[in-house]
Write a structure and sequence with these properties.
Length: 575
């Protein structure tokens, strides 16, 4: 009886408190008795005078059970049963045939037509009432089982199985009416960070709230489903213009970007949305879902909390991404990664005072893969954790070798990704590495982006305090580009602020960038923090930074990131 999920299968089972029974019989007296008997047992009753009328009424309102007379004018009960059961949305609708034809052939016809059961005339009313009650109990139990089978237990939304059915029906309707519809693939940003750092209960609260907001932001005719994890889909039917899809998607992003309170803490998530349109982006479930998923990854690559329509060029990029992901899993053990170093300079005397370790991927076939291609991929796949540890060990080993060779270099910056920060015991790792390579913790600076401070602030504050207690320096990278407020510089154990290159690029000509850089310099000076500028490329920028008392910088004006050998021969030996 489970069969395919009916399109009308919605959340909740409140409508089962008073089942609806359709009585189809051409005899008015029989209909009256059946109505009276069914209403005595608390059922709602609809009436049809023949099989055709029963089909028409069933199309308008799906009853919970049909009492179908076998012999009627216009269309008999056998034929009507066949027609009703042929409809996909009525395949599981129970029909009890009432027949005066007490012979084997009539019984066979009833079951062949798709009837659930039959009863003969003259009707034994006690038997009929028991059969109706039994059938409704079975149907209700099956409906609940089907609900569990086709719905997500946490959010109550349709799951992947029911979503596939809804998609197939949307495609059929669009084909019949030559219409369009949109498929939205939604991935919640920062969900894993919250789930891992605050616990699965917090993750469940987040998903439940996301579901509530999605339900409040789309039309009742639209379908929302949860595919699993933090992935949701929305089918927007009867939308032929992309502008309509854009308006709805922007509304979704707006409500999802509002802070969510979890265990008395505010967290920010947002979402990345990929959009595929029927029929231009696909005419089957598989193609539309794949293309919407591809567009979603493009939205993530563009900075998250945004949306992208699918284009054919994305498939090429997706294949490249898949190839890179597969290669990335073996790149560490194949020793395809290299640590490059970019020098940091003291603007007062022009001397190199340290370096930042930056990982590069020397792919055996593709050559050097740009960091903005593989770092986000490593972050998404979790490979950033072992890769980040490898960089820490490699850079610290190199610093030890340079110091043993007599080079006066005592400032090594190492980037730690948000995922590595939340998933790895950094204190244990650095304690082990510092001991292994006999390094002074004061020589090591950990660079973090602002997103680390925004999510799960209490945990972040404690981890940073522990690292600081060990003697490690903490630098806030790309300051001014994220969500962190300036108050974070006071509330967290930060030693150094790095001005993002996007602000340095505009000086000394862009008024807004000048104002921002001056403000950051004034704030850090007032708080007693070190300040370093990234992305310095011109002598004019150097002079401007010196004038605002920012005396540390790095950038192409001195050197791009280079290999350890080049760094030693061209920078350290000439210092």
């Amino acid at each position: 009886m489970l069969g395919s999920p009916p399109y009308s299968d919605q959340l909740g089972q409140d409508d089962w408190s008073s089942p609806v029974i359709l009585v189809a019989d051409d005899d008015p007296a029989m209909r009256l008795i059946l109505r009276h008997t069914m209403e005595q047992d608390g059922y709602q009753v609809l009436e049809a005078t023949n099989g055709l009328e029963a089909i028409q009424m069933t199309s308008k309102q799906v009853p919970d059970l049909i009492l179908m007379d076998a012999v009627m004018p216009t269309m008999d009960g056998f034929e009507a049963t066949v027609e009703i059961k042929a409809m996909a949305e009525h395949a599981d609708l129970p029909i009890l045939v009432i027949t005066s034809l007490d012979d084997d052939r009539s019984v066979s016809r009833a079951f062949e037509a798709g009837a659930y059961d039959y009863i003969t005339k003259p009707v034994n009313w006690a038997v009929l009432r028991q059969r109706v009650r039994r059938m409704l109990n079975i149907v209700e139990a099956e409906r609940k089982i089907r609900h569990l089978a086709y719905h997500d237990p946490l959010t109550g939304l349709p799951n992947r199985l029911l979503f596939m059915d809804r998609m197939d029906q949307a495609i059929c309707r669009a084909m019949r009416s030559d219409d369009h519809f949109a498929l939205l693939f939604i991935d919640i940003d920062n969900f894993k960070v919250i789930n891992d750092s605050m616990g699965h209960d917090a993750g469940d609260i987040l998903l439940t709230e996301v579901t509530r907001r999605l339900n409040s932001s789309v039309r009742r005719s639209d379908t929302i489903a949860r595919l699993g994890g933090d992935e949701f889909t929305v089918i927007l039917e009867n939308v032929s213009e992309p502008e309509s899809v854009v308006l709805i998607t922007k509304s979704l992003l707006e409500v999802l970007s509002d802070p969510i309170t979890i265990n008395q803490r505010e967290v920010h998530v947002g979402a990345s949305v990929g959009i595929a349109m029927y029929p231009q982006d696909g005419t089957s479930f598989g193609h539309l879902l794949k293309n919407a998923d591809t567009a979603m990854y493009r939205a993530k690559a563009l900075g998250r909390n945004t949306f992208q329509f699918y284009t054919s060029e994305m498939s090429t990029a997706a294949m490249r991404r898949l190839e890179l992901e597969n290669s990335l899993r073996y790149a560490i053990e194949k020793e395809e990664f290299i640590v490059y170093y970019q020098p940091k300079y003291d603007l007062k005397n022009g001397r190199c005072i340290g370096m930042e370790a930056l990982v590069r991927w020397d792919h055996p076939e593709k050559g050097l893969v740009p960091p903005d291609e593989f770092i986000p991929l490593a972050e998404e796949t979790g490979m950033i954790v072992p890769l980040g540890e490898w960089v820490i060990r490699k850079a610290c080993a190199q610093l030890r070798d340079w110091q043993k060779s007599g080079y006066a270099i005592d400032d090594l910056s190492i980037n730690v990704s948000p995922r590595q920060f939340h998933e790895q015991d950094l204190c244990a790792l650095f304690r082990q590495v510092l001991n292994e390579y006999e390094l002074d913790p004061g020589n090591i600076q950990i660079e973090l982006t602002e997103s680390v401070l925004v999510e799960n602030q209490d945990t972040a504050r404690q981890v940073l305090a522990d690292l600081h207690t060990m003697g490690l320096n903490i630098a806030l990278d790309d300051f001014g580009t994220g969500y962190a407020s300036m108050a974070y510089l006071r509330d967290f154990p930060i030693d150094t602020v790095k001005i993002d290159r996007s602000f340095v690029l505009g000086i000394p000509s862009d008024r807004e960038n000048i104002a921002i850089v001056r403000a950051i310099a004034g704030l850090t000076n007032a708080l007693g923090l070190d300040l370093i500028a990234e992305g310095v490329e011109t002598a004019e920028q150097v002079e401007f930074l010196k004038n605002i008392e920012c005396y540390r910088a790095q950038g192409y004006f001195w050197s791009k990131p280079v290999s350890s050998l080049h760094f030693e021969q061209e920078i350290l030996k000439r210092a």
